[in-house]
Each structure stands twice: as C-alpha cells, then as structure tokens.
Predict the 3D structure of the following.
Amino acid sequence: MRRLFPVTDETAAPAPGGGSGGDAGREWSLDELAAAYAYPAPGPAGPAPWLRANMVSTLDGAAQHDGRSQPISNATDMRIFGTLRALADVVVVGAETVRKEGYRPARAREDFAAMREAAGQRPAPAIAVVTAGLDLDFSLPLFASPLVPTLILTGAAAAPDRVATAEKAGARVVTAGDGLGVDPARAVRALADLGHTRLLTEGGPRLLGQLVAAGVLDELCLTVAPMLTAGDAQRIAGGPAVTVPHRFELVSILEEDGFLFTRYGRA
C-alpha cells in the first residue's frame, strides 16, 4: 500500500527497477487504516452527524458484476471495508442490497474493541435498513441474531402488519418519512437522535442516489478497481439526476496492486 495523495515526506516514490520506496509493498496495519479514515473530530457543540459512503467501481463505471460487488473487489478493499465498519456507529443500507448481497449482522472485531470502547461505541455497528415496504425475510441472522439490534428506517405509512413482524423479530422500527418512503435528511436526524453520528452507507446504488439527491452525503470513499466489465451494470449511484452536480474535493488516495482507494469530501 502506498499513499499517493496528499503528498508528504512519506509518500512513496517509484524506485529504480520498478519497485517503490516508503509504504509501497507493505501491508498497512488496521490502526494505520483507522487513522487514515478517521471521522472528523467533534466540534465545540459536540458530535454532528457525518455520513460517508463506501463504494467500489470498475474503470468503466460498473458498481457490480453479476449483480454483486464482490467480484470487482479485492483483499485490501475488504480490509478497508471492515475498517470503515469498525469506525461507524451505524451502517445504512437499502433493502434491495440486503436481499441481493445476503447481508449479515456486523460482528465485533477484537482488533477494534479498545478503540470502539474508548469512543463510547457499542462492540459492533448497528445495521439500519432503508425500506418502504418492509419486504424482508425477518428470519435471517441480520434480524434474528444481531449483536446490536437491527434498525428499520421506513415511512409513517408503512403497513402495520409488516412493522409488527419486524418488531416481533427484534428489529427497532424508526419512522423517517411521512408517507411510504424515507426522507434521507430525516433519516440522518433520526439516527443522530439515537446517538449514531458516525454514519456509513454501503448502498446500493439506488439508496446512494437518493442520499446524493437529498444533499446529505458528506463523504465518498470510492475504490476504483483496475477492471473493465462492459455490460449494463449499475453505476454507484442511480435514480434521477441532480439539477446541478454536487462538487466534492479530493481528500486522499491510496494505491495497491492497481486499485485506487480514494476519499472525497463535500467541497
């Protein structure tokens, strides 16, 4: 792993023979990754919600291959994926992604236990599923045996029988919209009211598109995979286009084995 941006005295420079100096060729520790992806420090008024997204894309813009993101990922991307989860209070995910990716509860990681305890966090982040129809299998481990109770973000008009089924399964239902759907800004506020200010979303593309359109996304962690897939796979964000593109600024770039691990923050 090597840091390409921001440029510092430790930034690896190409070495004779095609190798690299500095951090190149060395696997970063989990502590180093956690420091590189740390959430902003709380301000004078206390912690404010900060929503980051973690997504992966091929060079030609595909966010999935055969309907899943795993084929365009690699081992380092998964280490960063795990680190971002370990830093978060809650992981926000769309119902379709839960169904397609076979989502399971977040697990406690011994490597991050002391860090989470010092930050006043529970042993693992909660999973918050965004869903209008609550069309979910509540017998799955995500609902039946999570370390931290799973949250359901839905609208006030959600079917009462589905809400009752979710609650019976042990999920906590949080109203974040006046109709069937979820208002992204209201969802962020509702999670913050529960003490979850370090927010992470892993998509899918439709949910990310909704968050972008609502203007609530603070940061994008995007892995660019050195792959071409063609086809008609979704981009990382779907849905209607925003009227004016939202400008983000580059925060950092890490590189390993041709994969670029980028961070962009709200400009």
User: Anything to note?
Assistant: The chain has a mean pLDDT of 92. Helices lie at 30-36, 75-87, 95-101, 113-118, 141-144, 160-168, 184-193, 205-214. Residues 75-87 form the longest helix (13 residues).
